Amino acid sequence: MFYQVSKEDEYLFRGKRKRLVEQLRTKGICNKAVLDAIEKIPRHLFFDQTTGRPALLDHAYSDKALPIGAGQTISHPFTVAFQTEKLELLRGQKVLEIGTGCGYQTAVLVEMGAKVFSIERQKTLYDKTKLFLPFIGYKSVRLFYGDGYKGLSQHAPFDKIIVTAGAPYIPNDLLIQLKVGGIIIIPIGEGEEQEMNILKKVSTQEFEKQIIGKFKFVPMLQNKTK
Ligand code: SAH
Predict the structure, then answer these.
(1) Which residue, 129, 150, 157, 211, shows the most beta carbons closer than 10 Å to its own?
(2) Assigned superfamily of 7-215
(3) Residue 98 Cα, ligand 1 centroid: separation in angstroms?
């Protein structure tokens, strides 16, 4: 069902991942656990099988956003690394991810020892990623088909929350479901670009907010698809 890589390909891809990690380092990513995860995860296996595979395989380790089907994209490696680094993740922490997509960001969180709960609103992507992640060895993740605006109250509170789609505002349910002391990272903006918002919950009602950099995400949409 999934693309099989030969031994030589494996070797080639490992080299490409090493170079990608070097690029991320020069762009300012310094968290070792984040870089180790990116060096380990076979990003080339995460693309949609129907979207011109050979061309995409060549680009799998360039710092680009690429299609994953259902009109969605896998985030740039730099964006994944940046958001993950800002979560200040510790092993064993509970993380809620909004926007599972192809599961690449999910895999990075799992590699870093997080207990990951991830929500996707597109049924086709959810179905595909639910099969794919265990297939390549990520069996512990909990994937949900639903609307990320609502979070997952039945599994709250979370140590960290990461939103991987551009939101018009910060959903209140997500702020409620974050532990005191926890961090949420969410790109905010309705146009082409969003500003990365990093909020630390300092008490049940108070947050410290930082805005760092502009990024391009697909929009965070209301409700789930059929
Ligand atoms: N983290 C993903 C990025 C995927 S792009 C990866 O590594 O591949 C963003 C994803 O967010 C898309 O799959 C999109 O369908 C999803 N999304 C958008 N709005 C959402 C919502 N309200 N709830 C859950 N997922 C949402």
Answers:
(1) 129
(2) Vaccinia Virus protein VP39 (3.40.50.150)
(3) 6
